[in-house]
Amino acid sequence: MITVVGTGTGAAPAPETLAGAELVVGGRRHLDAVRLPEGAERIVLGPLAPALDTIEEYVGKDRPVTVLASGDPGFFGIVRVLAERFGAAALDVRPGVSSVAAAFARVGLPWDDAVVVSAHGREPRTAVNVCRAHPKVAVLTGPGAGPAELGAALRHAPRVLVVASALGSVRERVERVTPDEAAGRDWGTDVSVVLCLDESRALGAVRTVAGGRAEPGGWALGEDAFAHRDSMITKFEVRALALARLGPRLGDLVWDVGAGSGSVAVECARLGAAAVAVEKTADGVGRIAANALAHGVYVDVVHGTAPEALAQLPDPDAVFVGGGGRELPAVVDACARRARRTVVVAMAALDRVPAARAALTGAGFSCDGVLLQSSRLAPLPGEVTRLAATNPVFLLWGSRIPVSEDGPEEGVAQ
């Protein structure tokens, strides 16, 4: 049997949890805080593989093992690795208080509506995008993905960072800072967790299902769900297919370039992605912000003209390009060279299609597309109905072609 003991927020485990253990495994600070049973072997965790091999030797001989971990070891912790190697039935897990629960307790907030994301041993962009999109996020940090890096990436977002360090110890600190303040400091190695909050929505609504923002009840909303000018809005039939090809999801960043009303950006945000809307008109910028507010989501609105306005934006996972002026090929090319996954282009003019397609393929994308033509039910006098045709729209989408089909898959540290 492997007993896995969570040490709460810095508290040492009770002596009886170690009684009888012949092997005790844990971080150096956890091991230094306990008194080992007489004759027990001690392994300081570094690389997991050698420790797991030693644990297997003890388990194979039916010798008891205790593993010490921080907080709740089943929450982004070592329980996953142990269960994969030895099976869940071999584990006796005794959780402590997780750093996330402790941090929210310190600031007096419920966290059943929070999104928790790990940046420990991972690329920080997913955590940053979740922080952009959601009003209440807890980030488990690591080297290269701490408060300074989060702050630098979130300078323009309306967020406050709560940095909780050395929770449960005599060195405990809980500090509320702006992203700018976080970016300008060296936080050392004591950071336990960072809370990223939109304080205007920090309490949130009463929840039935825990987790972040609830999935929307529908998408490809009608045009009347958005403020727009003179019907200058991506029609819901076009938006439905565009969203299907963009595939916005939690942790993604999506650009809506030539956003107009921002309907695509707002819908992407409703589906959990971080969204940036780029719009050249001042009245359009105001409409986008109002539409985002009306739907209870955050969209980062950039007032500027593409492709120049794109230069300072973080790289997107997916891009939607609306409109279709003479600059369209340059805009599509700029977007395609930055997008990690896909670019979707909507055009009303046939003449723009070849250049947009060439821009996508020239940037290394595969390209496909359709001409969308739809007719909607429309009432006529006398309680009869006709079909009213909408304007046809060309929709192209490009998907990035993998460099090598035989290369190793990208791994994620546990």
What's the gist of this structure?
The protein is α/β, with parallel strands linked by helices and 414 residues long. The chain has helices at residues 28-32, 48-60, 79-86, 99-106, 125-133, 147-153, 179-183, 236-246, 263-270, 282-294, 328-336, 353-362; strands spanning 2-6, 23-26, 41-44, 65-69, 91-94, 115-118, 136-140, 160-165, 173-177, 191-197, 253-257, 274-279, 299-303, 318-321, 342-347, 365-372, 375-380, 384-389, 393-400. The chain is built from twelve helices and 19 strands.
What key phrases describe this protein's structure?
414 residues, Cobalt-precorrin-4 Transmethylase, domain 1, Rossmann fold, 5-stranded parallel beta sheet
Structure overview:
There is one protein chain. By secondary structure, the chain is an alpha/beta fold. It folds into three domains: 2-97, Tetrapyrrole methylase, N-terminal domain (Cobalt-precorrin-4 Transmethylase, domain 1); 100-201, Tetrapyrrole methylase, C-terminal domain (Methyltransferase, Cobalt-precorrin-4 Transmethylase, Domain 2), CATH 3.30.950; 223-400, 3-Layer(aba) Sandwich (Rossmann fold), CATH 3.40.50. It contains twelve helices and 19 strands. The protein has helices at residues 28-32, 48-60, 79-86, 99-106, 125-133, 147-153, 179-183, 236-246, 263-270, 282-294, 328-336, 353-362; strands spanning 2-6, 23-26, 41-44, 65-69, 91-94, 115-118, 136-140, 160-165, 173-177, 191-197, 253-257, 274-279, 299-303, 318-321, 342-347, 365-372, 375-380, 384-389, 393-400. It has a seven-stranded mixed β-sheet, sandwiched between helices. Helix 11 (328-336) runs parallel beside helix 12 (353-362). It starts with a strand and ends in a 14-residue tail after the last strand. Mean pLDDT is 89; it is low at 404-414. GO terms for molecular function: protein methyltransferase activity. This is Precorrin-6y C5,15-methyltransferase subunit CbiE. Pathway: Cofactor biosynthesis; adenosylcobalamin biosynthesis. Keywords: Cobalamin biosynthesis, Methyltransferase, S-adenosyl-L-methionine, Transferase. One of its GO terms (biological process) is methylation.
